[in-house]
Amino acid sequence: MTALAVVLALGAGYWAGSRNDAMPNAMDTAAAPAGTAQGDASGEARKILYYRNPMGLPDTSPEPKKDSMGMDYIPVYADDTPDDSGVVRVSPARVQTLGVKTALAENKVLDAVVRAVGRIEVNERTVVDVAPRFEGWIERLYVNAVGDPVRRGQPLFSVYSPELQSAGEELNIAERLQRSSAGSDPVAAEAAARLADATRARLRNWEIAAPAGGKVPSRQTFNAPANGVVLEKRAVQGARFMAGEAIYRIADLSTVWVIADIFEQDLARVRVGQAATISLDAFPGRSFEARVDYLYPTLNSATRSTPVRLTLDNRDGLLRPGMFAHVDLASAGAAPRVTVPISAVIDDGARQVVLLALDEGRFKPQPVKLGQRGRTEVEVLDGVQADDRVVVSANFLIDSESQLKAALSNLSEADEAATTSYEASGVFEAADTESGTATFTHEPIPALKWPDMTMDFGLDTPELTADIAPGTPVRFTFEQRAPGEFVITRIDEVKPGAASAASDSAHGSH
């Protein structure tokens, strides 16, 4: 809205005020046809690309023209702008001020190790529970501490079970009835045989051996089903247990698992069978070799990571479940790749760019396609060749996303920042406190290629014109803060004699 108001005011001010003849250089420029070039000091032709609005508005023309106030559009020459490749020039002094540092792209083996943290865990495939399938009481414990090592077949505990005694007596009765009625009552003998078979089947389900024609003991001893150590023990001598209750949990720790958490962005670099090196805080300077056994199919939404499982040999018993582990997965291989330092990449979220350092203070933004990422370098798949020099450090390329997005424009616009402030001489006409504007009749302003005219300016503060009477000769300073928006920041009154001399000098220069 401010820019629109200023433009409208400029139009009104122009037609209300007086205007001298246009400056000769502006008229000569306007007279040149589109696409023709004027000679520079060396006599060489300069190609005109287009004509831009003299007030800085986003309006261009392929032909010479005037704006609504009669001002000539300003030509833009081919050698005034960066070339089509986007190369920008930076002075050596500014390169030093910005702290620009460069490095060469190299063809080297990438140290692209995927690092993760994990923990030693029990190999679940070697865990067994000792759980009687009938109820009873524990009469005696042979292994009575967690952590005790056991061998396969070693006695663990003995039990007494009324259920077991009842089943044994039932089997004895059925076998006697079958023998006694075998010749006299075939039906009874068959029923007794079926009862005996059913009792033997029940004993087999309880994992109790039923001797043929023998007595089933009411007390049984349970042995270790595998080699290992006792992880859990719920047995207490004299305590009652229920059917299916796990009395002991035993695990073979000759092999253990390492469960490591791989972050989501590294999942594509991990595969089953991949070699890994594992180090433990408990054994500084020592490493263990392993391979990836399994990549879990789920992702932890809180940590954005997926577990990966590795198997380690532990026949010497050094590795204990619960230990903290560092896992390094080699993912890049031994093939050389074109790499650049990570700090050379400008990533704005939509694309990745590096700045190629050319000769004579020129820098070219080069889009790149990245591959694997290492500790200090990143692979470049496309856009950069070995021995290309890239920018790796500049104080305007760090610390905020806004600086990253503006980095390419900062290089070319930094030297132009000082040209946005202008000075002019003229006469103060009036001020509008409500809109914060003031009307001035000013002399030509060569820096903007403006002729003398009457126009409205914005005021930085209303106090600038508070003590100035209309018709007072002044010298003022103004800035262009947006296209078409010009704001006065300082006003100095000029003595009548000085003002007349300045005016005569300005008109004499025409």
UniProtKB/TrEMBL annotation:
This is Efflux transporter periplasmic adaptor subunit. Gene3D superfamilies: 2.40.30.170, 2.40.420.20, Copper binding periplasmic protein CusF. SUPFAM superfamilies: HlyD-like secretion proteins. The keyword Transport applies. Residues 255-332 form the CusB-like beta-barrel domain. One of its GO terms (molecular function) is transmembrane transporter activity. The lineage of its organism: Bacteria, Pseudomonadati, Pseudomonadota, Betaproteobacteria, Rhodocyclales. Residues 130-251 form the CusB-like barrel-sandwich hybrid domain. Keywords: Transport. Residues 338-398 form the CzcB-like C-terminal circularly permuted SH3-like domain. Belongs to the membrane fusion protein (MFP) (TC 8.A.1) family. It comes from Parazoarcus communis. It comes from the Bacteria. The keyword Transport applies. One of its GO terms (biological process) is copper ion export. One of its GO terms (cellular component) is outer membrane-bounded periplasmic space. Pfam families: Beta-barrel_RND_2, BSH_CusB, CusF_Ec, CzcB_C. InterPro entries: Beta-barrel_RND_2, BSH_CusB, CusF_Ec, CusF_sf, CzcB_C, MFP_Cation_Efflux, RND_pump_MFP.
